[in-house]
Amino acid sequence: MKYAKVYAEDVQVGSEMPPLAKSPIQQIQLTRYAGASGDFNPIHQDAAFAKAAGMGDVFAHGMLSMGFVAQSVTDWLGVGSVRKIGVRFAAIVRLGDVVTCRGKVVAKRPPKNGDGTYLVDLDLWAENQKGEKVITGKAVAVLPSRT
Amino acid sequence: MPIQINTAVKSKEYPPYSVTVERGKIKEFARAIGDLSPFYLDDEVAKAGPWGDIIAPPTFPITFRDEQADTGALLRDLGVEIGRLLHGEQEFEHFKPIRPGRTYLCRRRITDIYEKAGKSGPMAFVVQEATVTDSDNDIVAVMRQTTVVRL
């Protein structure tokens, strides 16, 4: 983890985000996330329920994976830098899956109206251990200038 | 045989509700994700940081729930069971940091409902938007959520 301040001059279009590989998904993490988020959908907790619902087995909250993706951005560009983040949940994340978050800079917009901050546009995605994309998304981060 | 959902709730606005952000809830949420940044977890480090206190992670506003405007309410409105729901898309826009001890007002509404054929059968897409304002009436965050209903 890195908490040093990143400046707009430190990233360029094409700069790649350091990948964030999370620990394998365990049931206990889904239970903790349910409690922390208030999402108690039994489909993430109860295998019999998930099976009856046609999903085969429990699977991770999409929002947990989105939390990983948001962390990958803030680990890189700093807590508080995320101005906007949006994702599409492309595939189910199952127990035992290892989610790795990746991204790159696609645009850097200079300051407007004397505001000294740059806006940095990111393409983001997360993949499982098979390399399948489980999330695709975009973010806008605010970065200060050194000058 | 696909089920029918109640599309009449398109553009429904839910009653505004307030939430007070608890310090421990921010920490519990960050730990559940496994994000151990001291700006979420460490009061002392955060005190010396840019905000003078801990702040919430970017996806934290998902915890801003209310019985009158939560998933249960949506299920009742649509007339479907929870096992049919999938999270399709989610977006957060942030304008001010979310801080412990503050009370925020949430206004949630259904902005669109549409149906289309998915890989595994017909699906309905329910789009909701929630605006979070603070006691200065400034917009702090906007959440947009697409819920997929397997019909």
Low-confidence stretches of chain A: none
Contiguous helical run count of chain B: 4
- Report the sheet-strand fraction of chain A: 25-35%
Secondary-structure-derived class of chain A: alpha+beta
| Biggest β-sheet: strands ordered side by side in the sheet of chain A | 1-3-4-5-2
CATH superfamily of the largest domain in chain A: Hotdog Thioesterase
Terminal Cα span of chain A: 26 Å
CATH topology of the domain at 7-22 and 64-150 in chain B: Thiol Ester Dehydrase, Chain A
**Most extensive contact:** A-B, 43 and 40 residues
- Give the termini distance of chain B in whole angstroms: 8 Å
Which keywords apply here?
heterodimer; A: 147 residues; alpha+beta; Thiol Ester Dehydrase, Chain A; 2 domains; 3 helices; 22% helix; 29% strand; elongated; B: 151 residues; five-stranded antiparallel beta sheet; 36% strand
Describe the overall structure.
The complex is a heterodimer of chains A (147) and B (151). Chain A is of the alpha+beta class and 147 residues long. Chain A has 2 domains: 101 residues, Hotdog Thioesterase (Thiol Ester Dehydrase, Chain A); 34 residues, no CATH class. Chain A contains 3 helices and 5 strands. Chain A has a 5-stranded antiparallel sheet, with helices on one face. In chain A, strand 4 and strand 5 form a beta hairpin. In chain B, 19% of the residues lie in helices and 36% in strands. The radius of gyration of chain B is 17 Å and the shape is elongated. The interface between A and B is large, with 43 and 40 residues. Strand 2 of chain A pairs antiparallel with strand 2 of chain B.
